[in-house]
Design a protein that fits this description.
By secondary structure, the chain is mainly β. It has two domains: 1-93, no CATH class; 94-451, membrane protein fhac: a member of the omp85/tpsb transporter family (Porin). It has helices spanning 76-82, 94-103, 158-166, 168-173, 213-226; strands spanning 5-7, 13-17, 20-23, 32-43, 54-67, 84-85, 89-90, 105-117, 121-137, 140-156, 177-181, 186-192, 200-211, 233-234, 237-239, 242-254, 260-272, 326-339, 342-354, 372-375, 381-384, 392-402, 407-417, 445-451. The strands form three sheets. It has a 20-stranded mixed beta sheet that branches. A two-stranded antiparallel sheet has the order 6-7. A hairpin with a 5-residue loop joins strand 16 and strand 17 (260-272). The chain starts with a strand and ends with a strand.
Length: 455
């Protein structure tokens, strides 16, 4: 299993399993078939004696076929190589094309996801992708998906429907949608640096994704010839168009006596285009949980300086939903040995998410470089602070049990600085953003269980 769990007020605990099957010579040509099933459930110990003690059911079934050969069925790479800029330059370099033909594996993946959150919503997600994996060296890997179809089929319960009626931004991003790409969907690049003589190394993971561009172009072309304003869709299913980029940079320094200093910087941006007004909900960024801002529950922080009243309720079973278009996060850990297989860590997390456009239902949520004031929907003067003042900060301590093949982790995070001041109007002092450590409540802590290191 590779599941991370989080708990806050109304603690949810969970368990999952992930059996897998491999066939290393499926078609007689060293093709690898990899299948796995991941199933998990989250429960609320407080309600363990009732018939509604469970909160979340999560199921994923996936099958991937890896062919040890480069199959350019559509001739995309051959055509890109033939596009030239003068006598010396081509759109696709000859060395890269040679490496793809020599070393790339063709990959076809089909998967099904089912997620149910009690009294909130459930969705089915169908996925089919076709692409390539290129192991450029022991420390570099490149994955490219060209053809991809994802179909999201959500069903909402009354409580969540009421929430959607109050939040048009969320409603627009949560409908029945399809993400379709025919020529290019995404690229994922990883590189691991070597350990230098001071014991330091780095890791980089960059991702870029675009969906719906081909259908949007075809839609525009059709409307131009037909002199119409038709928007392509398949029954109730709309075709979404969005672009997204994310970068993850990590630095690790090995100190004396098996001590380590680890730092991570993570940034991501998503934007809709074409006929889509908002990035689909399942593609938006969020923070919180076992591997992010560990004093907050998943989707319980932000966006921006917005304070979600649901996050303050003690009986919400962590049914939180806050997401954004832009994410910025910085994490640091000092790791050390205690005794036997027990390890310890002090950590510091700082970050938040933001929307790119102004959202009237969530004042203070959108990204700004400078400060401004405006009147909110309730007629109150609201002071919107710049993004760097809306950065939340958490600190904490973690215990890890290292069993060689598995590392079990228990982290306790404490909210040190909120993404909003105690005084929402006027010009509060800097101290208004920081928690008073003399009057802490259970909601100021986040408890996280996980497998493996957070980064």
């Amino acid at each position: 299993t590779n599941r991370s769990l989080s708990a806050g007020t109304g603690n949810l605990l969970g368990i999952s399993f992930s059996p897998s099957y491999r066939h290393r010579n499926l078609l007689g040509g060293a093709e690898l078939l990899l299948t796995n099933v991941t199933a998990g459930v989250e429960v609320n110990p407080v309600e363990i004696r009732s018939n509604r003690f469970w909160n979340t059911i999560d199921l994923r079934i996936e099958a991937s076929l890896f062919i040890p050969d480069f199959k350019d069925y559509l001739g995309v790479y051959r055509r890109l190589r033939n596009i030239r800029f003068g006598p010396r330059f081509s759109l696709l370099g000859p060395s890269f094309y040679t490496a793809m033909r020599r070393d790339a594996n063709t990959r076809v993946t089909a998967s099904y996801n089912y997620l149910l959150i009690l009294d909130w919503y459930r969705y089915n997600l169908l996925n089919l992708t076709y692409g390539y994996d290129l192991q450029q060296s022991k420390r570099q890997r490149l994955s490219i998906d060209h053809f991809a179809v994802n179909v999201l089929l959500p069903t909402t319960e009354k409580q969540f429907q009421d929430l959607l009626m109050e939040n048009p931004f969320l409603a627009r991003s949560f409908g029945q949608q399809a993400f379709v790409s025919f020529l290019f969907r995404d690229i994922d690049y990883l590189k691991q640096g070597r350990v230098n003589r001071r014991g330091a190394s780095w890791f980089f993971n960059g991702k870029f994704e675009i969906a719906g561009a081909e259908l949007w172009a075809a839609n525009k072309l059709y409307n131009a010839f037909a002199d119409s304003a038709v928007v392509f869709q398949l029954g109730p299913t709309t075709f979404s168009q969005y672009v997204q980029a994310e970068a993850d940079l990590r630095w690790l320094r090995q100190l004396k006596n098996d001590q380590q200093l680890a730092v991570r910087f993570n940034i991501g941006l998503g934007r809709p285009f074409g006929n889509t007004t908002d990035v689909p909900y399942v593609k938006q960024f969020y923070v919180g949980g076992a591997n992010s801002m560990r004093a907050w529950a998943p989707r319980g922080l932000g966006p921006g300086g917005y304070l979600d009243s649901i996050s303050l309720e003690t009986n919400n079973n962590l049914r939180l939903y806050q997401t954004g278009d832009f994410k910025l996060e910085l994490n640091a850990e000092y790791r050390f040995n205690l005794f036997w297989r027990l390890r310890g860590a002090f950590f510091l997390d700082a970050g938040n998410i933001w929307t790119i456009r102004k959202d009237e239902e969530r004042p203070g949520s959108y990204f700004r470089w400078s400060e401004t004031t405006y009147t909110d929907q309730e007629g109150q003067i609201f002071r919107h602070y710049p993004f760097y003042k809306q950065m939340a900060v958490a600190g904490g301590f973690g215990l890890r049990v290292d069993l060689s093949y598995f590392l079990f982790r228990f982290d306790v995070g404490l909210k040190l600085r909120n993404n909003y001041p105690d005084t929402r109007t006027g010009n509060p002092p800097e101290s208004a953003w920081w928690n008073d450590l003399r009057s802490l409540t259970p909601q100021d802590f986040g408890f996280n269980l996980g497998l493996g290191l957070p980064f």
